[in-house]
Amino acid sequence: MRKGKVYLIGAGPGDPGLITVKGLACLKKADVVVYDYLANEQLLSSAKEGAERVYVGKKGGDHTLSQEKINALILKRAEEGKIVARLKGGDPFLFGRGGEEAEELAKAGVPFEVIPGVTSAIAVPAYAGIPLTHRDFTSTVAFITGHEDPTKEESKIAWDKISLGAGTLVFLMGVGNLPTIAAELMKHGRAPETPVALIRWGTLPEQETILGELGTIGEIVQAKKIKPPVIIVVGEVVSLRDKLNWFEKLPFFGKRILVTRSREQASDLSERLRELGGVPIEFPTIEVIPPESWDDVDHCGAHMAMYDWIIFTSVNGVKFFLQRLFALGFDIRDLKGPRVCAIGPKTAEVLEALKIRVDFVPSEYRAEAILAGLRKEDLKGKRILIPRAKIARDVLPGELGKAGALVEVVEVYRTIRPEANAEEIKEWLREGTISAITFTSSSTVSNFVEMIGAPEARQLTAGVPIASIGPITADKARSFGIPTTVMPKEYTIPALVDALAEFFKK
Question: Which of 22, 37, 357, 501 has its CA 20 to 30 A from that of 327?
Fold first, then answer.
């Protein structure tokens, strides 16, 4: 049996992008992932297929497993020869009880590594626009637990030294004890006027920042009924928030955006939304797969020189067509005959990355604009190849044929509706937690409606901003009783995101 190993991984403060590169690499190779309440569940999607996932979270005194049982669990899995990722919120050695887990592993002779994490004590104030040190205010900072072991007979916090011993004080897990914390600090010399910030769910879309002063913050907490998780910052640096608050000013801050593209193509849209403070909820309504037969494509590949034009109407068309040609032993030189048209800049970008020169990109990224551009020359007798999906609009080949062109359409991929459970999405729509829905093709609309159910789709999307990438997509949505709220002037993903950001800004 192979020898197991445990990685004590700091998952970061909440934003899944703040896990370290090494932490993510260790998570990806784990056989077992044991994770906490404050470890973002989105990180679990990075675990390898088949990995066991065990939730051991502790929330408001409700413990799924005691610490002793967690220790026993990770020890047992490692002794079974498995690689264990112990995924802990923040940093495992800062109020994370990682030291206790490491002690048990060391005592049992089980190999382990500690992967430090971005602690919430630093990251959460940063996301609220509060630097913990600043040469105009203080060069010292202290991190203190706000939730000592309740079995202790007396506090081990030296309030007389802590109160004035550091310029900035950061308390973790202390909102329930805030009246006591404030009283102890003032008792030992901190001024009642000292600025205080409470940051709830820091680095996440739900982030909320409450400002006050030491003398009155306890009353504010009770009046607002603020619940954990909260980071408390005490000190003059809190006053810098007015200037430095950046996260909560991002255009998509606090917004959950439903992304209906295929899983393979969702990344560019999702990444752009994250950059602007949003949370993409990926609900793929399309899966792109190869055609049932490659015979037509193989025939075209063997006679490339006879075509005058190849028209690519999507990135998928480029990808599947060229992958098949390369698999047959062809290379870029075999495309030297026909001129190349790409429907939009993203499709052109993929072609140009392969060193294939694009001769024409229409100013408007849809079939009608391709027709307008190509009709400027005599199309009579010209042979035109269109590699595309099995199901697509017939406007382009039909109109080219009317202009006298000899058009050959070959199926290079199919789009199918993936199997997915839509119940969670329905529930979020009912609760109003989805801020907008994006549609990037007619197929994403049709499949979304099928997966949600036609009557429900119309009802559940009522009042939710709908962002459609272009008029064809918007028309399809309208046919199901789903009106489009946002449509960009250019039918591209960046333009779609920008238009939606402008909508929320207004």
Answer: 357
The verdict on domain 5-117 having CATH code 3.40.1010.10 is: yes
Confidence of residue 268 (pLDDT cuts 50, 70, 90): confident
Q: Residue 352: exposed, middle, or buried by beta-carbon count in 10 A (0-12, 13-18, 19+)?
A: middle
Rounded CA-CA distance 2/283 in Å is: 38
**Whether CATH 3.90.1150.10 fits 289-416:** no
How does pLDDT run across 349-367, given as a tens digit for each residue?
999 998 889 998 888 767 7
Of residues 163, 170, 169, the one with CA closest to residue 120: 170
Q: Outline where 333-387 has alpha helix (H).
A: 345-353, 367-374
The pTM (predicted TM-score) of the whole model is: 0.75
For residue 433, give the nearest of 229, 205, 224, 228 by alpha carbon. 205
Residue in 234, 266, 188, 229 with CA at minimum distance from that of residue 40: 229
Is it true that 256-286+418-505 and 289-416 share their CATH fold?
Answer: yes
What does the pLDDT look like over 164-180, one tens digit per residue?
Answer: 999 999 999 889 889 99
Residues with a known catalytic role: 36, 58, 173
